Amino acid sequence: MNLPDDGLILVVKEDCATCQMIAPLAAELEQQGLLKVTFSQDNPAFPEGVSVEDDRELETSFRLDTEIVPLLIRRKEGKEEGRVVGWHRDEWQNLTGLNDLGGDLPDQRPGCGSLSVSPGMAEELQARFGETGLNAREVSVDYPDDPMEQMFDRGWTDGLPVVPPTPARVLRMLQGTRRKPEDVMGAIPPSGEICTVEKAAINAVMAGCRPEYFPVVLAALDAAMDPEFAWQGLMSTTMGAGVCVVVNGPIARRIGMNHQHGALGHGNRANATIARALQLLVINLGGALPGGTDRSTHGHPGKFGMAFAEDETDEAWQPLAQSRGVAPGKSAVTVFGFCGTSINNTETVRDAETLTDSLSMCLNALYHPQHAEGGIAGMLVLSGEYWRIYKEAGWDRGRIEETLLRQTQRTAAGVEAGETTYATEGDLVPKFGPGDLVLVRTGSNAGLFSTIIHGWGSGPRGSQPVTREIVP
Amino acid sequence: MTQGTILLDPTSEKAGGMRKPKAPPPSLDGLTVGFLDISKPQGDLFLDRLEALFGERQIRVKRFAKLTSAKKASEEVIADIAGNCDVVVEALAD
Fold this sequence. Notes:
The structure holds 2 protein chains of 2 kinds. Chain A contains 16 helices and 21 strands. Chain A is α+β, with helices and mostly antiparallel strands. In chain A, helix 6 packs across helix 7, helix 8 (214-224) crosses helix 11 (269-284) and helix 13 (352-364) crosses helix 15 (397-406). Chain B is of the alpha/beta class. Chain B contains 2 helices and 4 strands, in the order E-E-H-E-H-E. Strand 10 (138-141) of chain A pairs antiparallel with strand 1 of chain B, so a sheet runs across the interface.
C-alpha cells in the first residue's frame, strides 16, 4: 500500500449516493493539489476527472480500516492526522482547510458501508492481507485441482464431503467463541495429539458448523475429554460406539436446533454437524479409521455424529441438564456414548402403568435379555405422546426414572432365562447401575413410540455421560 | 477463475512415524515375559494357560492388568512393563 506522506486521500464506491454527491468535490480538491489519490472500491473509472487507484481487491480499504465510505483522510509526514466518514460539511471543511467547500450541498449526509466490511468479507481480507493469528499449516490446492477431492485424497473426511477449511472460514468460526485460537482443549484419542481451539475450529468448519454452533462443539469436546467419558475406549471398541450430544438451554433455540420431527435424524444443520465435528477430530487429530484404531465390527450411522436438542417447551418436564446439576436458564451439553438406536412401539398404550411395563420390557432386552447387574447404559428418548400419557397421570422425570429402574429388576433366574418382564420379590437383580439409565424428551407430538439409544459399557469401568455448561 | 485454494490442515501436522517392530529374541531363556491382561472376559484363562506352559519351560513371567478394557493402561503399569520386562504378551478375549 503506497500512500502519500502528505495530503488527502479518499476512499469511495460508485454504488453509494453520498459518494456520488461528493464526487465533484474530489475533482475540486485534486485540482487544488490537496487530494493526492482516490481509491475506488467498485469502479476504477469513478469518480470522473480524478486520479483513481483501483481498489477492487479492497486491500487499501482493509489496511485503512475503512468501515464507511466516503472516507477522507488527511496525512502529514507519513501519519494520519484525521479522518471524516460520510458527508459532514463542517468536518470536511476543517479537514481540508477550505471554508467554502461544498456550500451547495446539504449540511450532512450519512455514508454507505464499505465493501471491505460487507458480510463475510472482513475475514476474507484478514486472511489475505492481515495477521490471522492462525498457526495451522497452509495446504495449497492449485487450480484446477478440486479441493473437495483433495480432502478425500488426504484422508480428511468421514466418507462424506466436507466444507473446505479456508482461512477466512476458520476465522469466521473462531468468531463464535471468546477462546483464543491457541488455547489447548486437550488430547484427542487415540493418538493423544493436542487439540487447540484452532484445530477444533478447522474441523468444525469441515463438519459444516456455523460459528454460532462453535461454543456447543467446544463444550461437547470438553465433555468428551473427561476421563469419565472414556472416549479412547468408545472410539476404538469393536461395538462401534459413537458420541451422542444432547443440547439443553437457550442456545439450542438460538441456533435453531431441532427437538421435534426427526430430531434424531437428518434435516437440521446444527443437529447434523455439531457431533460430526467431534468425529472429524477423532479422525484427523486422533488418527482413527475403521480397521485401524477404530475397531468397530459394524459401526452404525450415528458414528457420523448425532446431536439433538431436548424439548424444553413444557415446564413440567425437568430438562436433562437440570437433572444433572446445571442451573435453570443455562445452556449445557451432555455427551453419551452410544451404539445405535431402536424403537419401542406400543401404539395401543393409553396409561402410564402399561406404558412403563412396555418400556421396561424393551429396556431389559438392551444388549441382551440375559445381561443385567449394571455395566451397560441406555438413553430413553420419550416422544411427545408418551410424555403426554405420563404427564396426564401426574408423573414427572423422577417418578418415571425411579419406576423404570424398579421395573427393570428381575430375579437371577429370570435373568438367566432371558425374561424381559420384571419381578417385585425374590433375589432381585437390577438391569442398570446408578446413573446408567438416562431420560430425555424430544421428537414430535405424533407417534406412540419412543426411541431407545443403546449405550456402551457404563460405570467407572466404562463410559459415563458427562455434562458441561456451554460458555461463550 | 484460475485461483487456487488455501486450506488449513485439520490434522496434527505430524507425519505418521513408522517404527520397525523390535526383532523377536531368538530365545526366551533368561528373559522376563510380561503378561498384560486388558480385563476383557476370559483373557485371564488364556494367560493362565500360557503362564503354565511357560512355567514348564522355566520362563519367568510377570503379570499385569488394566483396570478396565475401556480405558488406557495406567502410566504406572506401562512404566513397570517397560522397566521390568523384555517381551510382552497382551491378551484380548471375550
